[in-house]
C-alpha cells in the first residue's frame, strides 16, 4: 500500500521492467516499496504456477490490478493491464 500511495501522491512513473531504457531525464525510483512492486510485476509476468488457488504473489498482483481499476479515472488512456476489464466487471 505504501508504494501505491507513493505512486499516487508523488507521481512515480518509472516502475517497470529494467530491461527497457527510461525516457529522457527519468531515473529509476529509489523508493524501497517501488522495488517490491517491480519484483512483484517481474514475478507475475513469468510465473508458471497454474494450480487452483494460484500463487500467493500473483494473487497480490491481481488485487493491485483490481484496486487500481477502482481508483482509475482514465479509462480510455490507462496503460495498466486489465484496468478496463476490471471496471466492466465491477459494473455488472
Automatic annotation (TrEMBL):
InterPro entries: BT1/2/3/4/5, TAZ_dom_sf, Znf_TAZ. GO terms for biological process: response to stress. The keyword Membrane does not apply. Keywords: Metal-binding, Ubl conjugation pathway, Zinc, Zinc-finger. GO terms for molecular function: zinc ion binding. The keyword Metal-binding applies. SMART domains: ZnF_TAZ (SM00551). Residues 1-84 form the TAZ-type domain. It comes from the Eukaryota. Pfam families: zf-TAZ. This is TAZ-type domain-containing protein. It comes from Lithocarpus litseifolius.
Amino acid at each position: 500500500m505504501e508504494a501505491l500511495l507513493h505512486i499516487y501522491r508523488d507521481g512515480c512513473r518509472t516502475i517497470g521492467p529494467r530491461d527497457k531504457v527510461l525516457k529522457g531525464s527519468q531515473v529509476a525510483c529509489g523508493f524501497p516499496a517501488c522495488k517490491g512492486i517491480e519484483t512483484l510485476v517481474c514475478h507475475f509476468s513469468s510465473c508458471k504456477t497454474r494450480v487452483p488457488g494460484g500463487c500467493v504473489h500473483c494473487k497480490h498482483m491481481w488485487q493491485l490490478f483490481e484496486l487500481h481499476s477502482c481508483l482509475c479515472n482514465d479509462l480510455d488512456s490507462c496503460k495498466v493491464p486489465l484496468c478496463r476489464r476490471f471496471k466492466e466487471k465491477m459494473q455488472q
